[in-house]
Design goal:
By secondary structure, the protein is an alpha/beta fold. The protein folds into two domains: 21-136, Immunoglobulin-like (Sandwich); 142-364, Aminopeptidase. It is 29% helix and 30% strand. Strands 11-13-12-14-17-15-16 form a seven-stranded mixed β-sheet, with helices on both faces. A five-stranded mixed β-sheet has the order 5-1-2-10-9, with no helix packed on it. The radius of gyration is 22 Å and the shape is elongated. 44% of the residues are buried. The model is unreliable at 16-26 and 144-159 (pLDDT under 50). The structure holds zinc ion (ZN).
Length: 366
């Protein structure tokens, strides 16, 4: 009995490992053009750039501990550095080689366990395809999670702490309990976003609104994930624009969120441009449209902005998320009147409350 259980477990494990590897029908050989490494205190990201989509498998080997990624129907470009040392506790070295005629093998020396790495393909951007390999702390910032990690303070986590009790009604609590919600405060770190006439940087109100919103949702019993809690980039640096956006999308997709809400400020050359817009993906679902519309209407109700409508778009974060998603342009940071709202505590809180009300309305009707 015990033995058969053991064999059964092995079979299950093997099946899982097989499912782990992604299978695409790649017809022609892809060229692996570049190997890049970025590194921060949380994780190491290794990226290989390819000129077309690549089928890959990964598996772990021991003594020494390493993770192997085989890229099938692939050829290594000649000028690639074959061996690079990594200065990180999560990985010490990466090697890349033409393992077989049509297989490029990447070997990462690392002793992180299965839960400590993640490998995924990214389509599009400046290169047609890339395979990203993350090693280290690959869990996402969960606000109010039971792990207690939310108290760990990062160096620039100062002015934006939200420590207050919001007055949340019973209905909101019953509607939001257990809902998984990813909030994406636009821009951050090296990317200020648009800048207003008095110097308000888009990345600051988006974070303040996001943190207030996160706190309200958390106090309502929702499970809240936020792509950044501080003034920081989301992807380990250096990263391309697409990698930065993909890192935000990853938070929504990998936490299996019910909705994804990206918060931005609009900007235009003319200072008179004004108002609030809700965006959703061109080919998005009717739920995405509703989410975008309700959140936009919630915000307008709170801060009294002009209604620019609910519009379709191809914004990366609404296009690549696998759940109903919206990108909200709260107001125009380039408009002096709206910049003043976005700068004020009152305006920030009301904007957050407006988004919150839109989310409650959205889930009330499901
Ligand atoms: Zn923006």
């Amino acid at each position: 009995m015990r033995k058969s259980l053991y064999i059964f477990s092995l079979v299950c494990l093997f099946t899982l490992l097989c499912m782990q590897s992604m299978v695409f029908a790649a017809s022609e050989t892809a060229t692996i053009k570049n190997l890049r490494i970025s590194n921060n205190s949380d994780k190491v990201r290794i990226v290989v750039d390819a000129d077309k989509e690549v089928d890959y498998q990964s598996f772990a080997l021991s003594s020494p501990d390493r993770v192997v990624i085989d890229l099938n129907d692939a050829a290594l470009a000649k000028n690639i550095e074959k061996e690079v040392d990594i200065n990180s506790k999560y990985a010490s070295k990466v090697r890349v080689a033409q393992f077989k005629d049509n297989v490029v093998r990447v070997v990462v020396e690392t002793d992180v366990k299965k839960s400590g790495y993640d490998i995924f393909g990214i389509v599009g951007g400046e290169t047609p395809y890339r395979v990203a390999m993350d090693f280290g702390n690959i869990s996402y910032a969960a606000i109010g999670s039971t792990t207690g990690s939310s108290t760990s303070s990062s160096s620039n986590d100062t002015s934006y702490r939200v420590n207050e009790d919001f007055d949340i009604d019973k209905n909101a609590k019953s509607v939001l309990k257990g809902k998984r919600i990813t909030i994406d405060p636009g821009h951050g770190g090296s990317d200020s976003g648009a800048i207003g006439p008095t110097g308000v940087r888009e990345k600051d109100p988006t974070l303040r609104i996001g943190l207030n919103l996160a706190e309200m949702l958390k106090q309502s019993g929702a499970k809240v994930y936020i792509t950044r809690k501080t003034d920081t980039d989301v992807a380990p640096q250096p990263a391309t624009d697409v990698e930065e956006l993909q890192a935000r999308v990853d938070v929504g997709n990998k936490t299996n969120s019910d909705i994804f809400v990206s918060i931005h400020l609009d900007s235009f050359t003319s200072p008179s441009a004004q108002g609030t817009t809700g965006y959703y993906y061109v080919n998005g679902s009717s739920n995405s449209e509703r989410l975008a519309r309700y959140i936009k209407e919630g915000v307008i109700e709170q801060i009294g902005t002009y209604d620019r409508g609910t519009k379709t778009s191809n914004f990366y974060v609404v296009k690549h998320t696998q759940m109903p998603a919206t990108l909200l342009e709260v107001a125009f940071v380039s408009n002096p009147k709206e910049e003043a709202i976005l700068k004020s505590d009152d305006g920030v809180k009301k904007s957050a409350k407006g988004i919150f009300n839109g989310i409650v309305r959205y889930f009330s009707e499901l």
